[in-house]
Each structure stands twice: as structure tokens, then as C-alpha cells.
Amino acid sequence: MKFVDEVSIFVKAGDGGNGMMSFRREKFIEKGGPNGGDGGDGGSVYLEADENLNTLVDYRYTRRFQAQNGQKGGSTDCTGAKGEDLILPVPVGTTVIDAATQEIMGDLTKAGQRLLVAQGGWHGLGNTRFKSSTNRAPRQTTPGKPGDARDLKLELKVLADVGLLGLPNAGKSTFIRSVSAAKPKVADYPFTTLVPNLGVVSVGRYKSFVIADIPGLIEGASEGAGLGIRFLKHLARTRLLLHLVDMAPLDGSDPADAAEVILHELEKFSPALTQRDRWLVLNKADQLLEEEREERVRQVVERLDWKGPVFVISALESEGTEALSQAIMRYLDERAVRIAEEPEYAEALAELDRQIEDEARARLQELDDQRALRRAGVKSVEEANDDDFDDDDDDEGGAEIIYVR
Predict the structure, then answer these.
(1) Taking a C-beta distance cutoff of 8 angstroms, is the pair 312, 325 a contact?
(2) What are the φ and ψ backbone dihedral angles of 334, each rounded to 5 degrees?
(3) Percentage of residues in the chain with pLDDT exceeding 90?
(4) Mean pLDDT of the chain
(5) Is 203 exposed, middle or buried (0-12, 13-18, 19+ CB in 10 A)?
(6) How do strand 94-98 and strand 104-108 relate by DSSP bridges?
(7) Which of 12, 86, 166, 274 is the most exposed place for a label (fewest CB within 10 A)?
(8) SS in 3 state form for 294-311?
């Protein structure tokens, strides 16, 4: 299945049906009165979160959607049929944005949650409505109102408890294969992960969490280089970040340098994202002797002045991965308890989430604008002379959620 996390669509609600002008014409009934009925309301357009979807690929090629119009009123005071509502299923985690105003219309974060995005038009009135003691034969009706029409931008952010960060070949895909049944591509060259991969990690009966493997970042990613910057927005809704670092790089480089590259790119993309709880995970411990491991860990921690939790693992050998998974589960459980018992803590987290999403959206929009200008052969906004440029590329690839029992 192709992975598409951003699409633009047009939705049009149904128009209301016109009112009917009609008079009774029955045998032996002289001067029958008005009996024109009202029209039917137009159908509305809704978006509904569907837990069986994990991509917006259904909206990549079909982008125009219209609800049914209301029917015209009939004689003998018959009301026209109401237009049928149109319900469009989207993945859980979809943000709906009005393309014209850039206003966020809603955030579908729970299965079954429904959002009205285009209101159907109000029905027109038949001439029966205008009958009065002084107007016994009204010849007045009203037309149905047009339904709302909107250009929408849909943005999907995967809902994962834990997000993986790291340079290409840091071992993120190997780690997610080790702790879950997800099978992302693993190879001995960079950029084997092209789209986010999700896996469900089971750590006991009725205890599990979702982990997201984000494509590796490179230096300059916050300026659009590489792949990972397109998917950093998916980390906005994670509860914990695992910063994977290769502690035994084949090129002999300093692991601390790799960690600093990621931190620098995070800060440029969204300063608020660096405030998310983050653990340092030093991977590929099997490549070093026992005494070398301790020294390498000490050097990295001192160089980074790291104050948070540090884990040393070998994802390939599944060494230390069980302990890390258990620690993550305890963290998530304790976090949930604090949210339930401490309103101030819950509000602080909610505010951080909003700040991250706002910064991520602004940064991605800035990069999209720059890319559109470059494609148009314009070096700056001033040279564009307020022209509009259409940048309608869609990201695609493959992703799946695999549940482990």
C-alpha cells in the first residue's frame, strides 16, 4: 500500500431543493388554495476517522467530492427528499485544514470521530408557506441555498507512542524488527527506510505500545536535504523519542558528532520538539569489546552533556532490547497516571503538542514555498511578484501496521 500523508481535496455539499409553486385543482372545489411543498435540504460532507486506514492514498487521484442535492418540493404539500450526506473515511490522526484560510477545522484522533466540513444547503420554501389571510393565492417561492464548497488540505500524522530518530544506518529498522513483528527493509547502505514504518511492541498480557521508525536524517535535513524532514511531523504526536546512535561507526567517526547532527536538525525544524522527552540509545554494542563499550558510552555522554536515560543495546543480537521495551512501557504507564491526576501536567503537555504542530506546519510550509519558487526559476519571494506557484507533489511509498501477540 502506498504511503501518502498529505493530500488536497475539494468538497461540495449538496444544494437545497427549490420550493414548489402549486395550487389545488380538484373537481367541485372552487378556487383551491396553494399546496406547493418545500424543497429538501442538501446533503452535508463529513470526514470520519477510520482505524482500518493508515494512509491517504485513496484521495491521491480522486480529489473532488460532492454530496447529493436536495430534491425540489412537490404539489399537495409534499416536501422534496433530503440529499444524502457524504461521509469520507480518513485515517486516525488526520488534521483537516481549510486551504483558503489555513485554519485548522479539526483533528480526527479517535476512531469513529466525525467532522462536518461542508454544510448542506437549506431548503427553499413552497408557496404554501406564504399563504395568509390577505394573500390567499401566493405566487411566491424561494430557491434552495447552495451548499458549502471548500478546498481542504488533509495532513496525516501517524499516532505512535514512541518515535525513532537517528542518522541513516543507525539501526532503527533493525531495532523495530527486533522488538515487533514489523519487517521494514534492512540493508548495509543508507536510506533503506523511505517512509515511516509502524510496529506494535507487546511487553506482556494486555500491555503494548506503538513504535514508529522515521526515515534517517542527514545534515541539512531541516533545509530540505534527504528524506527525513518530510516525516519529522509524524513525531509531533509521539510521547517519547528514542535517539538511536551507532556507537561503532564503520567510518571511525565520533558517535557524539552523529548525535549532535540530529539535535541540530531537530532544533531548526521545531525548537519545541527538542523539549519532548528523549532517551539516548547507543546501538551496535556487539561491535565493541566490553571494556570499549564502557569507555565509548562515557565519551558520548560527556560530550553531549546528556542528563536523561541512556541505554546500550544491540538490535541485531536483541541484546538489551527487552529491558528497553519494559522501561518504555513503565514510562508510558506513569505518564498516563500523571496526566489523569495532575491537570497542570496534562495542560503543559497539550500546550507543547500544539506548539510542536504549529512550528512543524510553519516550517514545512516554508520549505514548500521555497521549493515552488526554485521550480519556477525564482530565487526570492520578491522576484515572484506575488505570483502563485502550484507544488502538488505527493509523497508515496509503502507502510503497514503489524500487531504482535
Answers:
(1) no
(2) -65, -35
(3) 33
(4) 81
(5) middle
(6) antiparallel
(7) 274
(8) HHHHHHHHHHHCCCCCEE
pLDDT in tens, 109-118: 888 999 999 9
- Kindly report, residue by residue over 48-82, the tens digit of the pLDDT: 999 888 778 888 888 999 999 999 999 888 999 99
Q: Report the number of secondary-structure helices (H) and strands (E) in the chain.
A: 6, 15
Instruction: Tell me the backbone φ, ψ of residue 287, rounded to 5 degrees.
Output: -85, -5
Residue 126, CA distances (Å) to 17, 43, 73, 78, 130 in order: 10, 19, 7, 9, 8
**Which residue, chain included where needed, has cell 536523561?**
308
Residue, of 393 and 144, whose pLDDT is higher: 144
Give the largest Cα separation in the chain, rounded: 110
How confident is the model at residue 181, as a pLDDT? 65
Distances (CA, A) of 182 to 161, 174, 401: 15, 10, 7
pLDDT at 350: 87
Question: How many other C-beta atoms lie within 10 A of the C-beta of residue 325?
Answer: 22
For every residue of 131-194, DSSP letters joined together read: --SS-SS-----PPPPPPEEEEEEEE----SEEEE-STTSSHHHHHHHHSS------SSS----
C-alpha cell at 282: 547507543
User: For residue 393, what pLDDT is reported?
Assistant: 44
Per DSSP, which regions of 52-148 are E strands?
64-66, 86-91, 94-98, 104-108, 114-118
Q: Residue 28: left if φ>0, alpha if ψ -120 to 50, beta else—which one?
A: left
3-state secondary structure of 321: helix
Contact by Cβ (8 Å): 75, 128: no
In the chain, the N- to C-terminal Cα span, in Å, equals 23
Q: How far is CA 255 from CA 46, 64, 156, 193, 276, in A?
A: 49, 49, 33, 21, 22
